[in-house]
Amino acid sequence: MSTVPMSVHDAIAARRDVRAEFSGEVVADDVLERILTAAHRAPSVGNTQPWDFVIVRNEDTLRRFAAHVAQCRADFAASLPADRAETFDPIRVEGIVPSGTGIVVTYDESRGGDHVLGRATVRDTGLLSVALAIENLWLAGVAEGIGVGWVSFYDEEFLRDLIGAVDVRPVAWLCVGPVTEFQEVPDLERFGWRPRRALSEAIHHERWGRQG
Amino acid sequence: MSTVPMSVHDAIAARRDVRAEFSGEVVADDVLERILTAAHRAPSVGNTQPWDFVIVRNEDTLRRFAAHVAQCRADFAASLPADRAETFDPIRVEGIVPSGTGIVVTYDESRGGDHVLGRATVRDTGLLSVALAIENLWLAGVAEGIGVGWVSFYDEEFLRDLIGAVDVRPVAWLCVGPVTEFQEVPDLERFGWRPRRALSEAIHHERWGRQG
């Protein structure tokens, strides 16, 4: 790593959803602490900070989760029309065992009590707060040379049981570990699954649909 | 602004949910373009990039939205027990007119078609992707000296009508503009609404509840 801290724009551009590039080393404790500190500084509705981080390194747990994800991946593959199934075939969806560290990020809807400031009209702002923490974690990881891969091929109940979470919802499994490189082009673009959309297509002026 | 690009960790630490500190200037077009580029580089489930950005500067629209938000704020205040109502009283929940620019971030659940890679088992990953884009926008803003304030005191149908969004869901109204300063302590902490939680309380090892 360079000794010059990575800028926000550079980290955002370099960030990838990592599957195949984990080096096999395990993220150092002090680095992990800084990454989690970044996550924990995220904004949250009503300052509820409704997230928790369950750090999983037990090899048996990692392998059990990976086996479950492999089954969910196979189910998804079987649901696809032939041409999409062929495109999907070489795409990896996880680096659970190679990364050496899973972080299950959870959401506690009860945190903040009955009167959550800012959640009365838009209930999902609680759940969305958890994603803000995940993006902080992701970018802080890039700045530290650490790759993050979000795994979502799982049944929520399975993951809940796996980590013993009763009253909170597991929102994501993040594979976290040192990487050999960050790919220049996102996997799903490289493998032809889905191209990048032009920014201009995403911008509207004053009202929906007024573009260009 | 300094000419040295702001680091990821510094931006994450400096970021605030801005209400009162907008300077009254309007964000420059090239700066806004860089901030939206950062948002658009966010990860998304199945590379669906399900977000759009509706940029609102029409003063009448800003004022109409602000009036609606004021009513929602009053409704929330009226729902609080007396002690919480008193704490809430001085807390601002928006800087819609002073910021000069609103960005409504929307979610298109249909983008990506019937077979969204990674959304088959966890449906909310689409909505969560939108929050990842919002956090990129927020941090890129801080790096450019631009404040962002997420407003969630609104009825979704009102906002949908206001911007003419039919088939997409408005997820957030972001006030975006130059600021005089970023507060050192988040508003909801400063005003005694809700304190910061220690990071150690949010970290669990191997299983939920194994802490310290």
Give short descriptive properties of this protein:
homodimer, 212 residues, alpha+beta, NADH Oxidase, 9 helices, 5 strands
Q: What can you tell me about this protein's structure?
A:
The structure is a homodimer of 212-residue chains. The first copy, chain A, has 212 residues and is of the alpha+beta class. Chain A has helices at residues 8-14, 29-40, 59-79, 82-88, 96-99, 125-143, 156-163, 187-190, 199-202, and strands spanning 51-56, 102-107, 146-151, 169-178, 203-205. Chain A has a 4-stranded antiparallel β-sheet, sandwiched between helices. In chain A, helix 2 runs antiparallel to helix 6. The mean pLDDT of chain A is 97. At the A-B interface, helix 1, helix 2, strand 1, helix 3 and helix 6 of A face helix 1, helix 2, strand 1, helix 3 and helix 6 of B.
CATH superfamily of chain A: NADH Oxidase
Biggest sheet strand line-up of chain A: 1-2-4-3
Distance between the termini of chain A: 41 Å
What is the H-and-E element order of chain A? Answer: HHEHHHEHEHEHHE
Helix proportion of chain A: 40-55%
User: Which two chains share the most extensive interface?
Assistant: A-B, 98 and 98 residues
| Level-2 CATH architecture of chain A | 3-Layer(aba) Sandwich
- C-alpha-based Rg of chain A, rounded: 18 Å
Percent of residues in β-strands of chain A: 5-15%
Instruction: Domain count of chain A, please report it.
Output: 1
Q: Any idea of the CATH topology of chain A?
A: NADH Oxidase
